[in-house]
Amino acid sequence: MDVILLQILNGLDKGSAYALIALGLTLIFGTLGVVNFAHGALFMIGAFCSVTLQRILSWSFETIDPDKTDFLGNPATVKTPYVVEWFGESTGLAIIDWSVPLAILFSIPIMIAFGFIMERGLIKHFYKRPHADQILVTFGLAIVLQEVIKAFYGANPIPTPAPSAFTGSFDFGLLLGFAENTIIYPYWRMVYFAFSLVVIGGVFSFLQFTTFGMVVRAGMADRETVGLLGIDIDKRFTFMFGLAAAVAGIAGVMYAPINSPNYHMGMDFLVLSFVVVVVGGMGSLPGAVLAGFMLGILESFASMNIIKSFIPGIDQIIIYLVAILILLTRPRGLMGRKGVMEE
Prior knowledge:
There is one protein chain. This protein has 343 residues and is mainly alpha-helical. A two-stranded antiparallel sheet has the order 1-2. Strands 3-4 form a two-stranded antiparallel ribbon. The N and C termini lie far apart (47 Å). The protein has a single domain (2-329), classed as ABC transporter involved in vitamin B12 uptake, BtuC. The protein has helices at 2-32, 39-57, 82-87, 89-97, 99-121, 131-153, 172-176, 187-209, 211-221, 223-228, 233-255, 265-280, 285-302, 305-310, 314-329; strands spanning 60-69, 75-81, 169-171, 184-186.
C-alpha cells in the first residue's frame, strides 16, 4: 500500500504539468481551431521567466569591507544585492528567496502579451488553413523560440531553487499510520499539485460562471451564430489565446524548481501533452485535465523497477500504449465531441 500511495503522489506532480499544458492546448483548439505545436515553448518561456526574475533580483554591487580580508590580506570585496540595499537585509533576502512564486506575477503580463502577439502576428493567418499547415508553422516557431532561449541562457539546465520554507520533504507515512520515513514526498511537489488544482479550478470557474466565459463557450459551440448577434467573438478568442499562454507560462514558472529549466523542456512536454489532449478528447477541457492526471500516474507506476524488470523501457512508452488502446475503443478520446477534427 505504501508503494502504491508513493507512486500516486509521484504521478500527481507530472500529471499536474500535463494537465495544465493540455488545458491551454485545448483552450486554443476549442476556441480558435488551431493545433498549436508551439504551446510547449510557452511552458518553457514561463520557466525561464522564473530564471530571469531570480537573476534580476540577484543583481548586486561590490563594496569594500575593511573588517574582512582575502587570502592575500587585502580588504575583501563584498557583493550586496540591490534589493537588500533597498529593502533591508531581511526583506531583501526574503524577496530573493521567494523569487519563484513572485515570478508568477512577473510572468503573467509577459505571457499574455506574448500570446496576443503570437496570435495577431502569426496564428490568425492560419485559421482557415489545413491543420497540417498549422502544425508546421507552430512547430517551426517552437524550434525558433527554443534556439533563442539556448542562445541567451545556454544549453545547460539552470537550477532554480524553491523558497527555503518549502525545502525538504513531508512524511506522509506518519500521517497515514505507516512507519516513519515510509512515504516521503517533497513539499514543493505538493505545492505544485495544489497550485495546479487552483489554476484549473480558476479557468473552469471563469468559463462557467462569468458572462465573458459563457460567450466564449457559446462561440466554441457555434461561432457563426454568436457573431450574428453582434458580438466580436474574435477579440474574445484572442483574449483566450493570451489566457492559454498565461496558463502554460505559470505552469512552467512553478515547475522550475522540480525540473531545472533547459532549452528543450518545451519539446519534452509538448508531444506528451498532445497525446494527453487526444486521449482526453480534442476540444474537451475536462477530458484534457482527466487524461493529464491519469497518464501522469500511469507513467509513475510504469517507472517502478519491478515493472521495468518485466518489461524494459515500459516507462518510455506506456503513455503511447494507453493512447492506442483508448483510441481503438473510443476514437474520439475519453470525452471527445462528435465532429471535432473529423472533417
